[in-house]
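Figure 2 data, in text form.
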Amino acid sequence: MNMTLKTIIKQIPLGPFQVMTYLVACPHTREAVLIDPAGEENKILDLIQAQGLKVKYILNTHGHSDHVLGNAKLKEALNVPVCMHEADDRFFSDPAVREKSSKELGLPPPDPADIRLKDEDIIEVGTLNIKVIHTPGHTPGSVCYLIDGNLFCGDTLFVGAAGRTDLIGGSLETLLESLEKRLIVLPKETMVWPGHDYGDTPTSTIAREMEENLYITDFILI
């Protein structure tokens, strides 16, 4: 019997900003998490059903509205909690921040999370251990999720680029520090799954980004 089944990963570009939404599931139990539901909820629900998955959590990489667009409807449809880092849950609950973010992105900011995450938290789903890595810079509470050698980066790291820092709560200096101290220290073979398909491929590796990503080669590895 083959006990080394690979983690199930479905990458789907959705919503007005074509955010990469991810379904990640344990191959043994079919228990899953939904990362950054970006709208088109029926398409997500159809995929969950077709794959025979049982979603346990909705995980947001950060609080920008394009990445949380499907939170409310899918939380209700799946009867699962929404999880976000505590810093972004606090930040995007501030009325002034909500107003500014709505104007910047043209979409409503997130409702309060059901579970506030902290750096280094471990979320258990089937046989998967999902590690929360706090990577501020794009937003104060941006995180990446490390799952069985796969890094789901949201808008912290793209293929060949990194998240913009000109939106409210952003900081280039903080983002570069996150890349240097939290991400490029990971094993070089770690798979990079970005929040948008802005590069020449929809995935990458830490090794490739250390060779080709100007944010890393020109600002960090100099």
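Caption note: The CA atoms of residues 176 and 219 lie 8 Å apart.
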